[in-house]
Design goal:
The structure is a single chain. This protein is an alpha+beta fold. The protein has helices at 4-8, 18-26, 102-108, 134-145, 156-165, 172-179, 183-193, 207-214, 216-230, 237-262, 269-278, 283-290, 294-297, 300-321, 326-334, 349-359, 377-381, 389-397, 400-411; strands at 28-33, 38-40, 47-53, 55-59, 65-69, 88-91, 95-101. The strands form 2 sheets. The chain has a 4-stranded antiparallel beta sheet with strand order 2-6-4-5, with no helix packed on it. A 3-stranded antiparallel beta sheet has the order 1-7-3.
């Protein structure tokens, strides 16, 4: 890992947020080359290299030579314009070279430097679709607001368990007796109790012991995760793919929120897992609608636009319809309201989920479109501005294996 300060001094990186900077820094190294050393672009097709000090004489496949000196505008960009064989550079004196993993670089900066006309190329996937049907978005929004769309019902078993969990004098025996009538839910709870996120050092085979170990909030989260997967069986291939992506990402955010909450006073880590799991719940009713609209079920651009614009409202409506706590309804509605401020001085799970979202790309998730982490009010409200960001995010990156394990446990 290199110092983030090195990246901040370079034009291609100084506008990135904390997450991107630290992810790139983690996947970078600095090497020293003696005068006369030759760098072959064909050997660096999976890497991006920058000149930090010294002078290089670079050539393209047409043998055109160009001198690159450190501390010049040209050195602010990759040595090789394209990652292809035929590009070479010779050290005219001792050089220090920054080497970055190509996949991580592409995730935050771009996969090619165009010679200087633009530092960062916007990928096609990041562009707003030009064929969005605004009328359709407005029509669906009005149907939701006017309660003209039938929201999915929480399955009877999940509803029963949810009601029982809220009882003041609940016994584990009573709850286990209800849960074990559903083999799928029973298996998932036992598997979660044996997972590394809950210690993973015991071979638990009893549903009673599993409930005792992970607690009621975690049981609730597992039950909801299981029923969400089977709540809606779409027909369209695009909708199925979107549903699978949503389900895995929800688990990912739940695990990150759980890990963050473990290190914060006053937060219930299992409730945090549930909050992360439900933050995008509004995607489900929107997919139900989209599955019967060809202009949505077969056009990814239109579908993504609908989801991005309406999932907050749809999610809060669905959770209120299911009688979930108000703080979880707020998470579903405001998870992407980056300037969200808690209306009262309480433990704010919206902010916690927002920080989890901004960290998700570090553990296999997609990059979230939003402001730099330090500009989100939740970052300061949670006291994360007082934590060394490099140490904190390095610890968070270690949860990648836990995320993968939890996705496997809950998806299988």
């Amino acid at each position: 890992m290199i110092s983030v300060r090195i990246l901040l001094s370079m034009a291609d990186f100084n506008s990135l947020g904390d997450v991107g900077l630290i992810d790139i820094a983690t996947h970078s190294e600095i090497r020293e080359f003696k005068s006369g050393s030759m760098l072959d672009g064909g050997k660096y097709t999976a890497k991006i290299i920058y000149l930090l000090s010294g002078t290089l004489e670079a050539s393209d496949p047409n043998k055109k030579l160009k001198t690159i000196q450190s501390d010049t505008p040209r050195a602010q960009h990759p040595v090789f314009r394209l990652r292809l064989p035929g590009y070479k550079a010779t050290c005219k004196d001792a050089c220090k070279i920054l080497i970055i993993e190509g996949k991580v670089y592409d995730k935050y900066v771009g996969d090619v430097w165009d010679g200087g006309s633009s530092t960062i190329l916007t990928s096609i996937q990041d562009e707003i679709p030009k064929n969005i049907n605004d009328k359709l978005i407005s029509e669906i929004e009005q149907k939701f607001l006017q309660d003209k769309i039938t929201l999915p019902s929480l399955p009877e078993m999940a509803l029963h368990i949810q009601n029982v969990i809220t009882e003041e004098e609940l016994s584990i025996s009573k709850l286990s007796g209800i849960i074990q009538s559903d083999p799928a839910i029973t298996t998932r709870i036992i598997n979660v109790a044996n997972s590394s996120i809950f210690g993973g050092n015991q071979n638990i085979t009893s549903i009673k012991k599993a409930i005792a170990k992970i607690g009621l909030d975690a049981v609730h989260a597992v039950v909801i995760s299981v029923v969400l997967r089977d709540l809606f069986q779409p027909e369209s291939a695009l909708i199925k793919k979107t549903m699978a992506r949503y389900y895995e990402n929800s688990i990912r955010i739940g695990v990150i929120a759980y890990v963050l909450a473990k290190g914060m006073t006053g937060y219930n880590r299992d409730h945090a897992f549930l909050a992360g799991l439900l933050h995008d719940i509004g995607v489900i009713p929107l997919l139900v609608v989209a599955d019967i609209h060809p202009e949505l079920s077969h056009q990814a651009g239109n579908l993504d636009a609908i989801i991005e614009q309406l999932k907050g409202k749809a999610g809060s409506m669905l959770l209120r319809n299911w009688d979930f706590d108000e703080d979880l309804c707020n998470v579903a509605e405001h998870a992407y309201d980056w300037q969200w401020q808690s209306p009262e001085n309480s433990f704010d799970y919206v902010g916690l989920v927002q920080v989890a979202l901004m960290h998700s790309s570090l553990v296999g998730g997609e990059k979230i479109k939003g402001p730099p982490l330090c500009d989100i009010p939740a970052f300061k409200n949670l006291g994360l501005d007082k934590v060394n960001p490099i140490d904190d995010l390095q610890k968070l990156k270690k949860v990648t294996a836990r995320v993968t394990e939890m996705i496997k446990v809950l998806c299988n």
